[in-house]
Amino acid sequence: MIEKIKTDIGHSPDVIIRELKIGSKRVFDAAAVFIDGLANKEVIQKVLQNLLVDIRETELFEQAEITDLIKNFSLATGELQVLSDTPIDFNQLYDAVMSGDTILLFDGSPVAFKIGSKGWESRGIEEPSSEQNVRGPKDGFTENIRTNTALIRRRIIDKNLVFEPIKIGKRSKTEMTITYIKDLANEKIVNEVRERLSKIEIDAILESGYVESMIQDETYSPFPTVYNTERPDAVVGGLYEGRIAILVDGTPFVLVVPALFIHFMQSSEDYYQRADISTLIRLLRVGTFLLSLLTPAAYIAVTTFHQEMLPTTLLISLTAQREGVPFPAFIEALFMEVTFEILREAGIRMPRAVGAAISIVGALVLGQAAVEAGLVSATMVIVVSLTAISSFVTPKFNLAISVRMVRFIFMGLAASFGLFGIIIGLLVLIAHLCSLRSFGVPYLLPFAPFVLKDQKDGIIRLSLWSMTTRPKLIGGQDNVREKTAKPSP
Fold it and tell me: What is the CA radius of gyration of the chain?
């Protein structure tokens, strides 16, 4: 049996097979199999001490069966599972060993023990780098799924909190967990999540993005229909609303469904500030969203087709700036937008030490040199800068990327048809958003369809004491969130 294990695993140096003999008068041959780097050596050391030293002192050793003795009187470990089959399922053993557990085998026995000994090195809990808040918790998810489930349980002390384990990946066998609150989540949506995950057939899942691309409702839409976050408080907030979270081992990004368009415009910090401040910030986000989407297109349309809409003084100033520019407004804007996208991507991929240098070179050297060379006008630099800054206001990176893609389409429509092209593009965009679903829930909820009760947590956020119900079409049976009375002096 030991030789078969060595042969199947390929004599890997990190696979440790510790052969030992148990007993004094009655001697049994046994072996402990684990992987160095995945298993906790302190747990293994304790197991070996139980087998080689402590077990000899019991009087039952001469009478009891070895497997019963090991199970009931020897191993002082919290997680112990008996694997018994005839013959032994070696694939099951290998999966356990590759997951960080320790397998204990006995010569001539069809019974094996799986000892929970997962203990690989992992990154500590830190503040999420992609979602930083001024006020709120500073802890974030890590690549260890057990740590992530603990961060959620710490915030939800409720027996109805459910963790459903599932493994996906023919070769990676990546551990995943479906998380929801049983009496708050919609059972139809939970079943839909289970069904979509069960249909995934792939060799390996390396990141939650693999899962996201395979369970989203619309593949060819630039807008995300699955929410991802590194913040435990954002996930817990979604669970309390009746949403379902999907945790994937090996990544700090947790998926939350169903995800609505307005969900990507909100931040967990909105609920830690006063209602008026949060409402102002949300209105600012919506405004900057429109700016990042339409500013270059509006500039192209007005300067190319609708000069009469500008005041005479402003029109003369723009004409004077563009006097030496050899390109039409569309080519000028396209050149600047593509240049900025290159600089933004370079700033992300470059080492942190030289990332600031890229920004300085792009903003100062290239921008001013392009204006002085007469390739672009100074107004176009302002327009592109305003568009870029506005795109950074959007809380979620994947929605900001969607706007960056759609922006070029609007620029083309503006160069072809002017403001009429922009209006046509907006109508098509709204129709497309209305057609989207996230696990059966309309993407533009609560605006289309219009739900009056849910407007209290849309673009405008009311005080927490007035948010008495959960979102319609998302929650399950318990729709009442709170019954706190309005505070009074």
Answer: 30
Distance CA 58, CA 76 (A): 14
Residue type for 179, please? T
Residue 179's CB is within 10 A of a number of other CB atoms, namely: 26
d(CA 298, CA 294): 6
**pLDDT tens digits for range 30-59:** 888 888 888 888 888 888 887 777 666 555
Q: Which amino acid is at 312?
A: T
Q: What are phi and psi of 413, to 5 degrees?
A: -65, -40
Token readout for 124 is: 């500590």
CA–CA separation, 339 vs 332, rounded Å? 11
Q: What torsion, rounded to 10 degrees, do the Cα atoms 246, 250, 252, 253 define?
A: -40
Distance of CA 428 to the CA centre of its chain: 29
Q: What is the pTM of this model?
A: 0.86
Provide CB contacts within 8 A for 29, sequence distance 6+.
19, 20, 21, 106, 107
Q: How far apart are the first and last CA of the chain?
A: 77
SS3 of 258, please? coil
What are the structure tokens assigned to 116, written together? 């929970």
Tokens of 166: 């599932």
Tell me how far the alpha carbon of residue 124 is from its chain's centroid: 18
CA distance 319 to 210: 50
Strand partners, 475: 185
Whole-angstrom distance, CA of residue 246 vs CA of residue 110:
37
pLDDT digits 0-9 by tens, 122-155 = 778 888 888 888 888 989 999 989 899 999 999 9
SS (H, E, C) 168-232: ECCCCCEEEEEEEECCCECHHHHHHHHHHHHCCCCCCCCCHHHHHHHHCCCCCCCCCCCEEECCH
Q: How far apart are CA 26 and CA 4, in angstroms?
A: 26
Amino acid, res. 343: L
